[in-house]
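Predict the 3D structure for this chain.
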Amino acid sequence: MSEKREFPVAFVTGASRGIGRASALALAEAGFDVVVTARTLVEGETADGRPLPGSIASTASEVRKRGREALPLPLDLLDSDSMIAAVDTTRREWGGIDLLLNNGIYTGEGNMLRVLELPPGEIETIFRANVFAPTALVQAILPEMQERGSGCIINMVSAAGQSDPPAPAREGGWGYAYGASKGAIERMAGVLAVEHPGPGLSFFNVEPGFVMTEAMHLNDPDGELQKRAQGAPPSVPAAVVAWLATDPGARKWNGQTISAQPFALEHRLHPDWR
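Done. Predicted structure below.
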């Protein structure tokens, strides 16, 4: 393993665009070197062929512009070998991981399918990406944090896992499988806080509120979701992530779910966007 680095290391999934990209940049501004992981390696070559902007190469470039180092690595939540390879490469190149941000999710059309529309195997695929993959990353990274006596794990959750949709999927709501998977991963932070109560370890959920990311634009081409909610920019949950990762006062919320938009306003972490 490499020698301990001067700056802490953040490992961010789904960092090619949206909240993951914004969080990687906010963490860089907060003093982290950032492991930038996602499926999309370079601009214009999305992993599933859809016309989405963003890539780990462009996010890494922006991290470096903020004066921190970036390590762009391919990671597919449906490919366990790629996840382990990314963790192993990080340890080999940079040593340990101080912060794990489980932000990446399955972005396929199954997120917006109604119960009777779900094809065989689709819900299993969604749970593999949204529940099993982040759990595997925690199992791979938390032991080193425990041994070191310090570390932070943040899971990006969703209001879709906390409540019923205001309308059916594609009419302003979301699919059952997506909501069920996000509800499942939300249970992790509180359990980890109970299992690892030492003062140096922290576990949080961040519920970003309505944020219209690039992937959501594709899943909501008619703008039905936008008609029902006013969105915040991705920089809002990103600011909350950076604060939780760095401020000693964040320990007060250990094991809890933070609603990013009201929290950011209350604690003046982001200029008012409303």
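The chain has one domain: 9-266.
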